[in-house]
Specification:
The chain is an alpha+beta fold. The protein has three domains: about 35-55 and about 110-225, no CATH class; about 235-325, no CATH class; about 365-470, Sandwich (Immunoglobulin-like), CATH 2.60.40. About 45% of the residues lie in helices and about 20% in strands. It contains 17 helices and 16 strands. It has helices at about 15-20, 35-55, 85-110, 110-115, 120-135, 135-145, 150-175, 180-190, 195-215, 215-225, 225-235, 245-250, 275, 295-310, 320-325, 330-335, 340-360, and strands at about 60, 65, 65-70, 75, 80, 240-245, 315-320, 365-370, 380, 385-395, 400-410, 415, 420-425, 430-440, 445-455, 460-470. Strands 8, 9, 10, 12 and 14 form a five-stranded antiparallel β-sheet that branches. A four-stranded antiparallel β-sheet has the order 13-11-15-16, with no helix packed on it. A three-stranded antiparallel β-sheet has the order 3-4-5, with no helix packed on it. A hairpin with a 2-residue loop joins strand 1 and strand 2 (about 65). Helix 5 packs antiparallel against helix 7 (about 150-175). The protein is elongated, with a radius of gyration of 33 Å. The model is unreliable at about 1-10 and about 10-20 (pLDDT under 50).
Length: about 475
């Protein structure tokens, strides 16, 4: 190398990797928008929050309507009581949730993300609070540049305090589904909350605050796994938010009500409002991206611009890949909703749903567990009798106090000793010890016997449970 030739700078590998993997986050200031999809988002905000904050306060038969009581190991859902033995229903419910997500995604994309996901709902609420304290998008950006001004400090403080109160109330409500709300509220007033209640209130509240107030779109882009595998459930006939490039390009500014074809332009005026309203900060004109949560904000924004320009609405709209390529009408799109994937998902979902309904409808109001005394499997007593000792665990699954009569069936001369009437309070269990005797003569070994436990008030509620009697 000659002296005149400048030396080339060698870029370290670490520097290259850092440049390619890490990006400085630019804060997103979503612009407020009105329209059909914005109204539906707020309808779902109100619906989900009334449901979430209200159910735990709703009374039902002298208790909380929805309560997952971990101490008692019972789940109360309105008139239904689920015990640990009912884990089958939880499994079925999870299967239904999964296939519902598959079905809705295959039909119309990320409906869950755009309208009912807690991250979306609470971000919408927190953005509304931010707008109340700090103004619209342009005002917020200006105030953030002069953030240390006394007025801006006060506004930010009010915003953060409101966020914290909403988050704490959200965490408190969450714990109220696992600890009876009446007990939880009394503990708060008396300052006697247990360590686990305090932990989960603060944990869930902090998670809400960080997700909806601080990280926002970062949760959807980097933390949520659904964004990564959603494409597996999409196909060319899935309804997604699309930009009609054939109609919109070439984009560019122009005066109102100018015919775009006369200036060799498309309908897109390149105003970037669709980007400004996007909660994840993407440009839908670049095509479908995994960051898109399907909220429809860009559709509302673009329709307003099209209306002002006196152009047809729908430059950005819900459509399908095939519909754009083949210029289908709305009727054609609806005709292609029913397809093999949708039929399979619907069939599985219907079958599992019917199984759940059947299981709940036929769920018994009485359960009996029988165990033989392991200390003394069988013993000979006076009078030439063989005696086996059993422990009956009687569970009253209904919400009515009941009295049950206990009897035993088996070989001739079988006899039952002990308390034959047992009273069990509603949604409770009682245990009783019973002795069963048989003559010592006859067949040795194991014999089959049956315990009958029957409600005295309603003979339809009964259990015929099998057990074994051992003669040594």
């Amino acid at each position: 190398m000659s002296e005149a030739t400048p030396a080339k700078r060698v870029i370290p590998i670490v520097e290259v990797v850092e440049d390619s993997l890490y990006e400085v986050r630019k804060k997103i200031y979503p612009r407020a928008v009105t329209g059909v999809f914005a109204r539906w988002r707020w309808i779902m905000v109100w619906f989900t929050q009334i449901l979430y904050y209200g159910l735990c306060w709703m009374p039902w038969n002298g208790r909380q309507a929805v309560l997952f009581h971990l101490v008692e190991r019972k789940f109360y859902i309105f008139g239904m009581v689920l015990w640990p033995q009912d884990v089958f229903f939880l499994t079925v419910l999870l299967i239904i949730s999964a296939f519902s997500l598959f079905l809705f995604t295959a039909v119309a994309g990320r409906l869950w993300c755009g309208y009912t996901c807690p991250q979306t709902v609470y971000t919408e609420i927190f953005l509304w609070v931010e707008k109340v304290f700090q103004g619209d998008r342009a005002t917020r950006m200006k105030r953030d540049e002069a953030r240390w001004a006394p007025e801006n400090l006060a506004r930010r403080g009010g915003k953060y305090l409101t966020w914290a109160l909403i988050s704490l109330w959200t965490g408190f409500t969450f714990v109220g589904y696992f600890t009876p709300m009446s007990e939880l509220w009394r503990s708060v007033i008396a300052v006697t909350l247990g360590p686990w209640e305090v932990f989960w209130i603060l944990f869930y509240g902090t998670f809400t605050y960080m997700g909806a107030g601080v990280m926002r779109e970062q949760v959807c882009k980097y933390m949520c796994p659904y964004a990564r595998f959603q494409s597996v459930m999409f196909d060319p006939d899935t309804l997604i938010i699309t930009y009609d490039a054939e109609r919109g390009e070439a984009r560019g500014a122009r005066k109102k009500r100018v015919d775009p074809r006369s200036i060799e332009k498309g309908d897109c005026v390149d105003c970037s409002i669709c980007v400004q309203v996007c909660p994840t900060g993407i440009d839908i004109r670049n095509g479908l991206q995994y960051e898109c949560i399907g909220c429809g904000a860009c559709i509302d924004a673009c329709d307003q611009v099209m209306e002002k320009m006196n152009y047809p609405k729908g430059l950005i709209r819900y459509s399908t890949e095939n519909a754009l390529a083949k210029h289908w009408t709305g009727k054609d799109i609806l005709a292609h909703i029913v397809r093999p994937r949708i039929i399979v998902y619907t069939g599985i979902l219907s079958a599992v749903g019917l199984a759940l309904i059947w299981g709940l409808a036929t769920k018994p109001e009485l359960r009996v567990d029988i165990t033989r005394d392991r200390a003394v499997l069988a013993r000979e007593v006076e009078g030439g009798w063989i005696e086996n000792v059993y422990r009956l665990h009687v569970m009253n699954v209904s919400e009515t106090n009941r009295r049950y009569a206990i009897s035993v069936e088996g070989p001739p001369d079988i006899d039952l000793l002990g308390e034959r009437i047992i009273e069990v309070p509603a949604t409770s269990a009682q245990s009783t010890t019973l002795r069963v005797r048989m003559p010592a003569d006859g067949k040795k070994g194991s014999s089959v016997i049956y315990f009958d436990v029957k409600s005295i008030a309603d003979e339809r509620i009964k259990v015929h449970e099998k057990a074994s009697f051992i003669k040594p």
